[in-house]
Amino acid sequence: MSSHPAVLEDDPLKLEEKFDPEIHFRPLLPATAVLVAGLLFTLSCFHYYTAGFGLLAETTHRGVHMAFVIGLIFLVFAARGRDQDRIAPHAWFRPGGILLIDWALALAAAAASLYVPWIFHDLAFRVGNPTTMDVVMGTVLIVVLLEATRRSVGIALPLIAVGMMIYGYFGPTMPGIFKHPGATWSGLVNHLYLTSQGVYGVALGVVATYVFHYVLFGVLATRIGLGKLFIDLASWLAGGFAGGPAKVAIFGSALFGMISGSSIANTVTVGSLTIPAMIRMGYPKHFAAAVESTASTGGQITPPIMGAAAFLMIEFLGVSYSTIILAAIVPAFMHFFGVFCQVHFEAKKKGMRGLTREELPDPVQTIREGWQTVMPLAVLLLVLFSGYTPYLAAFWGITACMIVGVGRSPLITLGSFAAIVAATAAGLLTKWIFIGPMAAAVAALLVWSWLNGPERRARVADIGDAFVVGAKYAISVGAASATVGVIVGVITLTGVGFKISWMVTQMAGQMGDAVLSVLPAGLFTPQGATLFFTLVLTAIVCILLGCGVPTTATYIIMVTVAAPTLGMLGVAPIVAHFFVFYYGVLADVTPPVALAAYAGASMAGADPFKTGNTAFRLALGKALVPFVFVYGPAMLIVTQGFTWTDFAITTFGCMAGIVMLSAAFSAYMFAPLRGWERILLVAAAMPTVAPGLPSTLVGLAMASPVLLLQLRKRSTAAAAVAA
């Protein structure tokens, strides 16, 4: 596929940095750039080593991670946005092109982060009775953390954290239900800094223990060619159908999303091929950009490499990562199915063709050239589903990426894969009898490759660069997770989460009573109406919060507040967590802050706001699915009381509802739809939200007049063409 001119003007990597503030590093002078790259590489090596050879003590591990993360942020993000895109010259007050204050803040961040691990031996005696030095160091960490988060992810999250601390301090002056005893500043610092309920809490621990490793794996897997293999296979599978490039975007984004949890990275990588092809095929520019960006948001919900929130579920729910993967499979499929339906109807309405045989890649050649790149993903899944920890699975996946990327030899690839399979089966994966020789072999392979010609040296250098880029992708997530720890810490200290849950339940109950008063008796129960409006309110807050806060932060905040609310209404914990997670991800294509959609619009040369609106419409399947699995938990497979009968009924009903909504929004099914037909299809889709055979049959019965008319129109059109 040749590139469209609109794409040639923008390099995908530059676009990703432009629309993803978390990786928009400022340019540095050469010497400083080498120092920063060295620190990023060291951070990746630290996590890679500890994942395979043993984690440090919990607080120490988190402290080292945070020292690197916050310190690096002050070196790579300028204090002012206008300074972020220019190289500052060296001066006495700006050594290496970075202001002295930034160097000082970086050192202060490192010192304050490592202080708690340093005093850990007598920390138990200080919690509740902090010394002056404890309060000073805690204050320093909170201040530098908020500033680092502001620089790397924006102002919204730090403002929420500051607001929560003000609330915690001035509790006695708060009105009504929000009144609480309050806390002194030393009490706040004690809770947020010296306990595991604040900055050093679960959120930071998950990023330092799981997320970093999977981000690094995704970068390495892409570098060795797994992403290209997925895109070529998607082109071969879907390119020949009507509106082929748009369907390639969906399949490609689904496959690429398996190794990339970033919506924007997915958009610019897959979109660099699919968006220009869609435009050449005849799709409007805004629609082409919307298709790619909407499909790309599925990366955060597509197993096995999901967004950071998926790893947080492990800690919050106390379940294995394989359980989270199984639960996510069908909802992720439903997202892509919803986008596929709207793309298909749009292609049929416009009479678009598929790609010709000459335009499609050769599947045999694609597999012959790229089969080795699948091995790291196979290794990761093998180790993960064998019962080992997620970080150990990532360690062996990263190791396999290095072997494939540097070796480029079928014999080496198959031999290494066979060795890992055998070690897994024998339970030797963590034993020195295996890990020692394997580590020596990988080191020897790297050295041998470096000494044998420029091509092999380039491969080793590319692996090293991937370690740098992987850390680059992860540092902003680390800062955001630590700041979320401040918010969660205040919530646990004051108990405001339960108060908000009570208020939401009361408001939803009042809304339910108002609706029940005008509906026929028996159609809804009071508890059912309360649950429905609680879900609606939670979804709205998730979307609004997600417009200014990263997905991970949105998930943690909303789970802290909303999970108790949904739990009181009988929703299973894993279902409540997935509900919040899905609506937090939806913010990536929800105007006015639809960053993935804006990245796609820039590549297509389309209107950003129009692209965002279209992307939101295409993502309505993702908006419907969370309601379905709340009412039909069987869709998540791993819920208590699961049966295949319930699963089949729930899944079929959801698919039917998605098809009806897609046809209604596309104004086409088998033929153009009139206004009343579209309204009837939307109404018919509503019963499928409450899955069950009766409600599904009701929805199908409501839609049957439209279906019969559509079939008649298609037959008439076919007869006219034949005549």
From TrEMBL:
Pfam families for this protein: DctM
Residue intervals of the TRAP C4-dicarboxylate transport system permease DctM subunit domain: 141-426, 436-639
Membrane topology of this protein: Multi-pass membrane protein
Keyword Transmembrane helix: yes
Main subcellular localisation: membrane
Superkingdom, taxonomy of origin: Bacteria
Residue ranges crossing the lipid bilayer per the database entry: 28-50, 62-79, 100-120, 132-148, 155-178, 198-221, 233-259, 321-343, 377-405, 411-429, 434-451, 471-493, 529-549, 556-583, 589-606, 618-641, 647-668, 680-703
Gene Ontology CC entries for this record: plasma membrane
InterPro entries xref list: DctM, TRAP_DctM-Dct_fused
Keyword Magnesium in annotation: no
Alphabetical list of PANTHER family matching this protein: BLL3936 PROTEIN (PTHR43849)
Protein purpose: Part of the tripartite ATP-independent periplasmic (TRAP) transport system.
Name used for this protein in its record: C4-dicarboxylate ABC transporter permease
The species this protein was found in: Alsobacter metallidurans
The organism's taxonomic lineage, starting at the top: Bacteria, Pseudomonadati, Pseudomonadota, Alphaproteobacteria, Hyphomicrobiales
